[in-house]
Amino acid sequence: MAALWPDRPPLAVPTGEDTPKLFDAVVKLSTELVNGQMAPKPWPNFLPAQFSLQSPIHDAQKNCTFVLVPTVSDWLNGDTEALWPGVDWRKAAMRPVMGLLDNPAEAIQVPLYFDLSRYHLAVLATPAGAKTSFLRSLLVSLAATHSPDEFHAYVLDLGGRNFRSLEELPHVARSSTPTRKLTRSACSACWKSWKK
Predict the structure, then answer these.
(1) Alpha-carbon Rg for the chain in angstroms
(2) Could you tell me which of 108, 95, 89 has the C-alpha nearest to residue 42?
(3) Rounded distance between C-alpha atoms, residue 11 and residue 173, angstroms
(4) Higher pLDDT, residue 188 or 171
């Protein structure tokens, strides 16, 4: 809304009969010269509210689109010929991609990796804090980048059979729910191996 000044006449609304102003002509000519292509943004867009490991993510600075874990898309499309070519144990093993890291200071967004080859990972969250979604994404990211010979998973599903969909992965050796007697022995075995 424009400010109203009692002693000034209102601004004239341009019509089609008005001659173009120099500014308008320069903007129009500049747009035509670059074929409508805008200058790159100095910062990336906000992170998407939701995305998956195979969602296309647009990098505004590089003007390209990438996928966090392309092998997940290969799985979904049935392209499994070259799915597990072998993992480089010094550079890429046990480094699942889990999300997108937004670094406003550097004005970049890069894939978020966890280096499980050197460090442990504890997942803590409030109830309904997306722990299950995080852990499912972790298992799928590892399974998509490691063959069943390179990665084995033992799933203790103590919440509500939320990991049922992962039981069919060839990487999952055993999935235990609270209704199985195995839960107690599996927890005991995990505890004993951890104490060593």
Answers:
(1) 27
(2) 108
(3) 75
(4) 171
Q: Which long-range contacts (CB under 8 A, 24 or more apart) does 152-160 make?
A: 154/186, 154/190, 156/183, 156/186, 156/187, 156/190, 158/183, 159/132
- Number of domains within the chain: 1
User: Does the residue 64 lie in any domain?
Assistant: yes
If DSSP codes are grouped into helix, strand and coil, which group holds residue 80? coil
Distance CA 68, CA 66 (A): 7
In tens, the pLDDT along 153-181 reads: 888 777 777 888 888 888 887 766 666 55
SS3 (DSSP) at 25: helix
Instruction: Answer whether residue 100 is part of any domain.
Output: yes
